[in-house]
Amino acid sequence: MSTSEQGARAPEHLVFVTGKLARARLEKVAAGLPADRFAWTIADAGVKVAALMTEEIIRRRVRIPDGATRILLPGRCRANPEALASHFGVPVERGPDEIVDLPAHLGLAGRTVDLSRHDLRIFSEIVDASKMTPNAILAKGLDLARRGADVIDLGGLPDTDFPHLEDSVRLLKGAGLRVSVDSFSLDELRRGAGAGADYLLSLNEENLDLAFETDAVPVLVPMRPDDMPSLDRAIERMERAGRPYMADPILEPIHFGFVDSIARYREVRARHPGIEMMMGTGNLTELTEADSLGVTALLLGMCSELAIRNVLIVQVSNHTRRTVEEHDAARRVMYAAKADSALPKGYGRALLALHDKRPFVQTPDEIATLAAEVRDPNYRIAVAEDGIHVYNRDVHKVGTDAMAFFPDLNVESDGAHAFYLGAELAKAETAFRLGKRYVQDEPLRWGAAADDEAEDTTAFKKAGHTKHSGPGGPPPGTRDAAKVPAEADAAPPETVDEGAARAEAEGLTETPGDRPARIVCGKLVPADEA
């Protein structure tokens, strides 16, 4: 084997920058990385909490070994990766928030997740457009487009005049939006096409002549949902003319032909392998009182299998208020999974709203060990399989009822602190009961069902009440950490290579025999020397 071939196969040397409290867990995860792909070093900056490391601390206290190829910071570390890369001369990136997610971050899930692509067009219907003003329609259309819609569909209502249809189409088109018109009225369809609509929904073999009077692309439907021969005849006519079109066999609601309608989509695809198709998902999402995210994921999985590249969605019911975002997330996940010839698993958390695949990132034993390290009065809150953990230097309590912690927290006379802890514990209880990830001072993540809060990853969290704010405590509205430099209790920095870490984990290194121990939450755990 040539020298260049040997070099090409050399494992990548990663440097994990961390703090004292996270080091043991990081070593455990890093020890499980495949040695043929990764060599690694842990650079302990000497501070307890890795999230509090600044660029200055890392520059002064971390030493990067020779041969390092990439430096990973903790996900919650606010230091600027670009600035540190310039300082060390090695690429620097922010890793995952949770250590347990490190293997997936390094691509060990077997794939690189790219959710930037999709091949499905979302038509989002404004069902009551005929009752809205043109300006209101424009504002609604722009909002739908911001959420992920590709085409704004103007829905006509039976026995309701739509005199401002042309003005509405022109306004939307003037704003750079694509427009479709959906109406039972042939006159409205013709007027919408004349005003510049891009698509017409829904034409059948009886009114198909309109498709030859305009450049708007028609969406063909059967005369009745079960009349597939009528849809076939309309398709054949458009094929003979060589004109673009889509076909929609019509999705029916549950108990009103749902299963048969799914079969019809399969049959149409089998008879016409290369045509463009549409599925209107609203008959299932709107007419089934179930969380719509899972319903949407299933329907778009069907679209992915059948190469249906257009969906018509509608939002009338309050329980489907996020339907645009849900369809947008699902189309990206399904596209990526199909491109990888894989199951739609391991492509992020956008399709998980109520539960998380890995909700508990620490075990009760790991939390107990961390609790034994704490030397300050600030409360930490974590969630594990056995419940909610609340601890500081004086107390470590575990429970499942947020309100039951109150008598043990000594905040009866401290309203600000009690309010903070109450809010955090209620959030932790919600996470525990649902099986969601909880991170103190972070919002719960609801996938596509709710917007994530915008976050500046280089800025520290806003001050809050984590410590008793009565006499002797910090002023209200400040954090204890805001007054104490991050290095105030710093130990000397330490760089631990892979071999030393593995030896220590296997008990091969000498350990002091006189370290004191403490009972924490019913477990004997080591305690640091003062």
Automatic annotation (TrEMBL):
BP terms from Gene Ontology: pteridine-containing compound metabolic process
UniProt region (Disordered), positions on chain: 458-530
Gene3D superfamilies the record matches: Dihydropteroate synthase-like
Signal peptide: none
InterPro entries: Dihydropteroate_synth-like_sf (IPR011005), DUF6513 (IPR045406), Pterin-binding_dom (IPR000489)
Residues covered by the Pterin-binding domain: 103-368
Biased composition regions of type Low complexity, renumbered to the chain: 483-494
Name the record gives this protein: Dihydropteroate synthase
Organism the protein comes from: Methylobacterium durans
Source taxonomy: Bacteria, Pseudomonadati, Pseudomonadota, Alphaproteobacteria, Hyphomicrobiales
